[in-house]
# Entry
Amino acid sequence: MSTMMSTSPESPAGGLREIEFRDAIREAMSQEMRRDPRVFLLGEEVAQYNGAYKVSRGMLDEFGPRRIIDTPISESGFAGMAIGAAMMGLRPIVEFMSWSFSLVAADPILNNAPKMLYMSGGQFGCPIVFRGNNGAGGQLGSTHSWCVEGLYSNVPGVKIVIPATPEDAKGLMTTAIRDDDPVFFLESERMLGMKGHVPEGDHLVPFGQARLARSGDDITLVSFGRPVHFCLEAADALAKEGISCEVLDMRTIRPLDVGSIVRSVRRTSACVVVDQSWSFASPGSEVASIVHRECFDDLDNYVHRVHSVDVPTPYATNLEQEYLPNARRICEAVRACLYRA
# Structure
């Protein structure tokens, strides 16, 4: 369990500077590469093309081809190579153009990286960051729209980070690069152009510490990543009906800030979990299980959940929007949980 939620205010350190989500990630990677010569970036099109989504724009010019490395289209190969480099003392950042493509690298990233310290009796660690776009990206179809957190969070030994703001993207990426364990950093293509206040210089956000995205008294909404913004949209709509929603942005699901969830739910007595994974065996189902166990006597109703619909991701824009958790579906779940449906 974590200690306290952070409210993540617009701090004086950040001033009024606003940058895009993608630039916040690049700033964190670049600052850490200047600080630590062991850090390097590799992946498809990260160098000459400046990244498929321009996250690594300009990094080749500054750090050169020995540290910004274009790879063949072979996720299993370059993921395995990076794990070997991490075992030998380097600190790789591996970009998967899409986390959907990480499925072909499942053996090295799930069977090697998380187990290396354990299997070697502490002789070899694996300080490595795997990052890339996760979830539906806007008419990419079902095979390019995987939300992998439901699959990968089941594996002991990995840390899973899902930022929802540019500030957290920088702070969590910095923490991830410095961490001595394998970190899966899940971004969203639909959020890369989002602007926000981001502190300059050294900025770290600790793992396992939720962000209080909105205070409220009637019900707790628990989410992470892009769906946090759907929750905030729903909270705005519900406020007009006299319903006050507290929104928790978990930031990381491995480790999970159980303490902040429990404290909030014990105060509001109601909870809706919003998770863009499919519902079966998902992070959302784990959160619901924890709340039922820890807050059973405090709840006025069972924990309601809003997930992506249990079908392959549609291609059509209107179907994709209906497939994902959205403000309308969240509002319906909140009303049902508060017996106002």
Q: What stands out?
A: The radius of gyration is 20 Å. Confidence is low (pLDDT under 50) at residues 7-14. Residues 21-35 form the longest helix (15 residues). The domain at 18-197 is CATH 3.40.50.970 (Rossmann fold).
